[in-house]
Amino acid sequence: MAKDNLTAVLYGVEDLRLEQRPIPEISDNEVLLEMDCVGICGSDVHYLVHGRIGDFVVNKPMIIGHEAAGVVVKCGKNVKNLVVGDRVAIEPGVPCRLCQFCKIGKYNLCPDMVFCATPPYDGNLTKYYRHAADFCFKLPPHVTMEEGALLEPLSVGVHACRRADVGLGSEVLILGAGPIGLVTLLVAQSMGASNIVITDLSQNRLDVAKSLGAMHTVLISKDKTEEQTVKEIQGLMPNSPDKTIDCCGAESTTRLAILSTRSGGCVVIVGMGGNESKLPLINACAREVDIRGVFRYCNDYSTALALVASGKVDAKRLVTHHFDITETAKAFETSRYGHGGAIKVMIHCQPRDKNNNKPF
Ligand code: NAD
Ligand code: ZN
Asked: Could you give the percent of the chain with pLDDT greater than 90?
């Protein structure tokens, strides 16, 4: 096997290095993957810039990256679901499988979750990576590796729409047109939403949302009062949104989410901003607006894959930039500053399209 295991390792704030690492040994239930591509997520950039997210602190070198796809090059002796050569999307969090949350299927709440590139656990922006075989999803031949990597953010969108009970005829408000807001838009459409309004501070991102099928967009600006913005949103949805999904997490957006939602409707909070927010809770209480959290996803990867494989969701439209793993620093800079209207930046660990049956 090749000796090259070039790996992107975050040593601390503003200190991301490429270095050679040993090729990992696998256990009986794992597979060794030759990594194909890894998308950059806002959290990867956050760890680079701040060295922490809440209580998760980078205090020893950590391999970055968790939105990934690879090809199986070796199987542990207990592995039955995969064979060498299979192209897979990698669900990056492996739970304990034993605790009360795992047992009821809400494994995203497992306190012992080992999640790629959430300290202290390594991620997978590397050439060779080992992973639990049952958290790898075999891609059909017509699905590209990049689409496989995109199943990670797409699964967040699936989980958010499920938590909001989006269905036929839902009138959905999405706050935030970053990658997460946009995948939520794509999933809400595929689940049958009849009207979708999306908001953002950036007109460029709203234009992308419009091109992806958002019915209406609302530019958030300091020149409008909260009340005016609520009126503007409700003017576009005469019955007010019945499902609102906050994909920003700023205090101002969570406030807007509650105030804009129809009585009896539901607000789902995906965006993670400051630890505490001042919110109009009595307004939500007196109008029976439910407020629900979202933490990553659970049992959503296969649905995300089905949406892509069936053509119901065209996730590849979110990818704006491509870089080779040797250009990781440039890739992070592009994602961090949104250069060239960057939305999703993809890093390739192999020559592009090496493992695709059609060009991406
Ligand atoms: P992003 O920063 O790329 O997108 C956020 C968007 O919100 C941007 O387009 C920005 O212009 C807009 N925005 C920011 N502040 C705003 C404000 N005050 N009013 C209106 N718009 C505003 O991030 P992303 O990758 O799309 O992720 C969105 C959020 O979801 C982040 O907070 C991230 O941490 C969170 N997230 C949560 C989960 C989860 O499991 N709950 C999973 C993934 C991401
Ligand atoms: Zn568990």
From this structure: 97
Tell me: the pLDDT tens digits for 81-133? 999 999 999 999 999 999 999 999 999 999 999 999 999 999 999 999 999 99
- Give the Å distance between the CA of 347 and the centre of ligand 2: 31
Give the tens place of pLDDT for each residue, 151-195. 999 999 999 999 999 999 999 999 999 999 999 999 999 999 999
Which residue intervals of the chain bear CATH 3.40.50.720? Answer: 157-293
- pLDDT for 1: 56
From residue 95, give the alpha-carbon distance in Å to each of 114, 116, 242, 283, 327.
6, 11, 33, 37, 32
User: How far does the centroid of ligand 2 lie from the alpha carbon of residue 183, in Å?
Assistant: 27
DSSP H/E element including 74: strand 67-75
Question: What CATH class has 6-138+314-348?
Answer: alpha beta
- CATH no. for 157-293: 3.40.50.720
Give the single-character DSSP code of 279.
-
The model's pTM: 0.98
Ranges of CATH 3.90.180.10 domains, the chain? 6-138+314-348
pLDDT given at position 2: 62
Gyration radius of the chain's alpha carbons: 20
Q: What is the rounded (10 degree) CA torsion for 318, 322, 325, 326?
A: -150
For residues 185, 189, 195, 200, the Cα torsion angle rounded to the nearest 10 degrees is: 10
Pick from 115, 270, 320 the residue to mutate for probing ligand 1's pocket: most ligand atoms within 8 Å of its CB.
Answer: 270
Judge contact between 123 and 116, C-beta under 8 A.
yes
